[in-house]
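not sure who needs this but someone in the group chat was asking about RING-type domain-containing protein from Adiantum capillus-veneris so here u go. i didnt clean anything up, its just raw.
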Amino acid sequence: MGLSCKICFESASSLGTSHARITPCGHVFCEPCAVTWFRSEAACPVCRHCVEGLSSLIPLYDQDAGLQSSPFESGDDNFVDLFGDVTANGTHSGVEKQYRDSSSLTARTPPTDCTTPDAARASEARSSSERESEGGQRRGVDDEDVQVRFVLGKVAERWQQVMVERAKLKVQVACLDKAKQDLLVQLQRLTEENMALREALNSRSWPTARRKPLQSTIMDVNKHHDHWEARRAGDANSNSCSRNGDVDTSLLQRFSFTEPPHMGWEVGPMKAFPKPPEKVLERLQASKWELFHTFAMHSGPVHGIAVNPSGNLVATASWDHVCKVYDVRLEEEVAVLSGHDHGLYAVKFSPSKRNVVGTVSSDRTCRLWNAENGECLCVLEGHTDEVNGLAFKVGTHFLATASDDMTSKIWDAETGVGVSDLKGHRHAVYGVCFQPQGHLVATASFDLTAKLWDPRTSESIHTFSGHLEDVIGVDFDSTGNMLATGSDDKTCRVWDLRTGNVLEVLEEHGGEVKRVVFSPFSRLLATTCGDTTVRLFDTATFQCQHILSSHSDHVFDVAWSPTADFLVTASHDHLWKLWLPKTPPIGYTFGSSRFSHL
């Protein structure tokens, strides 16, 4: 029959030496394994079915080995038979009855006299008939036995297949466990490397890569500046372009500034901040900043906020598609700037034309407005994705925009013509600003870096790396010594523009850092945060001096008044707030107006 023992997986029967046994639940074992197992166990080792000792095992008939065992030769009390029932006294009601009937038939046949020919013939006929009857009975038993053996063989074959599949699955599970352990080890190693890298990045003495010194690069930029000045007359007749965003190279020569070139790039002591007027200094050194008023003017998150150079107008940009202009002295809304097709991301006042304000939107455009009457003066089109930020250049009519299309563009605000495209970031550009003393542009990007650019050549002259998440905010200090960046990694980094190294990492924030803005005279640095607060840091010590807490959602933008007599904050809670230093401001009077002192 070729059945295998379910314990040793060897042949369950061997001619003349070993006999196969089967449990009532249908599992086959060789005799040695069966004796060894069921001597102390009362359950089948395969399916754990209850087995009442060795006596419950059924012997199997095998065509090769013959009758494996006779239940009548055993001293067992009961036998379970596949072909019949077990009687109460332990006898077999199926095969045993057939054998008993066969024996009884022979026993009941009386002896005959075979001396006469007729008697001999009759005896021979009876014997032949009895042999035929007995042979028929044996054939019936054999047929039933063959059917049972066939079924058992199929069951055993399928069971062996299941066991093989189970073994394969166990091997796969073991391989997966090993792979899991390897991944855990690799994760631990990478975590340790990451922690070491973070410590190195946060260290002031972190070594910079070997590259051209930033001081030398800045001096080269100044040389380019002189070069373009010399070529101004020669390129006066170049062709200009339309407002479709194409760069007008003829305007590159006009990208010069009225102030003298910044010459403070030599490596040496940090330049001191210019001394502010006494009253302004008192405000910047105030012991506390207090909430003065909350404005609910928008139906969507307020994403950008700005104060005009005169200090009386506050403009707010919201996701409700409009920008609103509020006069804090008159205590009234003076204009609603409506025209964008989608939400607004940022707003800035022009430092040169005090009634001009710019807005950028997810509709891929930048618009310039008359802040007094709400008239749209110009639509700057050219970006191929959402526009996130903008900045005006002091003393000029140039402005810069930052977009999700991975570029920053320089525009002539008077003509609406594109002047330069700054390409080099590998992800969306979110923040942009001009160097107040000099002619560099800084950008902040979702590629985790900030870059310095020469807009006349559209070349990146330095990349600031160190943030671990998207870089959102960027701002120069008033001296040109420092650049601040804010990131979703919950830090603000302050960079030394003389060397390109990080000066300080401000880690006190409880959420993502959005925009960062230096105060007038750069004595304080304001950071907006996803933890609903604004923090003010002393730029001399980089210690947090004040925490402004009143909003109920992300604070995304902050702006200072020109004389630091107030600051304003914009939040995703649909509100903007006005804060005052706890020091009597200039011209303070107790009048009927809440803002009579501003």
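also Confidence is low (pLDDT under 50) at residues 64-114, 204-211, 226-268, 587-597. if thats useful
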